[in-house]
Structure of Aminotransferase class I/classII large domain-containing protein:
Amino acid sequence: MNIYITKQLSTSIYRISNSTLNQSIVSNLRAISTSAAMSNKNRTFELPSRYKGTKESVWTEYIQMALDYKPLNLGQGFPDYPPPKYIMDALAKASNQSDYMLHQYTRGFGHPRLVAAIAKLYSKLIGREINAKTEVITTIGAYEALFSTIMGHTEVGDEVIIIEPFYDCYEPMVRYAGGIPKFVPLRLKEVSGRLPTSADWVLDKDELESAFNEKTKSIIINTPNNPLGKVFTEAELTHIANLCKKWNALCISDEVYEWIVYKPNKHIRIATLPGMWERTITIGSAGKTFNVTGWKMGWAYCPANLMKNLQMIHQNTVYTGVTPIQEATAIGFEIEVERLDSDECFFNQLPKELESKRDYMANMLVNAGMKPTIPEGGYFMLADWTPLESKIDLSGEKDMQKDYKFTKWMTKSIGLQGIPPSAFYGESHKNLGENFVRYCFIKKDENLQKANDILLKWKSSLK
Ligand SMILES: Cc1ncc(COP(=O)(O)O)c(C=O)c1O
């Protein structure tokens, strides 16, 4: 019952009690009025209906589980070792200068030194002049860049195509904007005689094509992909690009792992394909670029007419980012842009450093009896854990999806934490992720060895 009805009831009670003194009617109306007021009160404390249906995210649940059970955590995607020294020095310098303005609000759409550095870097990478003032925005992590993009470019009822498995915040963001997510999964091809790689996870061309229609507003892609590590090829991106052009759709390209690509694979920016600059918003993250996830420093670049819509959302939610963090990121980019083609460049060192960790993890998982998919990029690995299914008792876990049961069992019983990949699928496709677990390998070698020891010890305890 709404407030208007509640008020009407109160007025009626007053009138009746003053004219007829019919006590029974009065007390009945009072009861109705009280219950109406109560239901209004309950509404006061409820999540607005447009957000209902949003579940606790996998991160909230699994971070709490890590705190409770203290497993070796290969769940969350961050390094468990320090970032490169020059980037820590950049932050120290940015925070310890006599220039007091570095501790005050900076330009809302991006700290001038940083947007200049981002524009310079990506102008070089995508082969067109990017305007630092109108075509770049800096955000609180790539997360906020995604939020501003999705909110700023989704009309109520618009369809947004999301490729599965996907970074889990895409779906609620689309729904909050009033959009309708349309899921299209990458499917694992049959492979025999070798381990699968992330290149074996492919889109069915027809399935993708049939997801597009006149209601399609945009498609969200993520290359290299989290959690799979798939690096989309030029042919795959061209197919997506052609569909975007055919249906006049936008492309939201989450490229936060752009520098973490293992040879001979190559990161291709979809914005560089013919006719795509004008319809692509590309998103990046300093967290992934410089190994500083705690800085929550992101950005987006796109043509000025598309950027205006992101600016509108950003201006009225966050308004401005953190000045010293932006200054430090600018210093980092200025250093790297001068040595992009050299081995010294951190962006080139990072995948080399991670490749041996990737290979170590793949062996470790094979030895434990799982079947990993070898990633072409990023720092996550999916592994099929079902060869172990008959050896473990998951009946103590009550979740719907069996990857949740497996990862919870593993955290609690053998002290190793991974993430359940069904969290990266829409409701109707969760079964596609259930046979897998996601582990992160941007971890100290000694911790990867500890994970190996844990798995071997567990395996040898099996009858
Ligand atoms: C694919 C993807 N996009 C976006 C983000 C969010 O990045 P940030 O930490 O910069 O907000 C992440 C973080 O893990 C990610 O994996």
Observations:
- The chain has a mean pLDDT of 93.
- The longest helix spans residues 23-44.
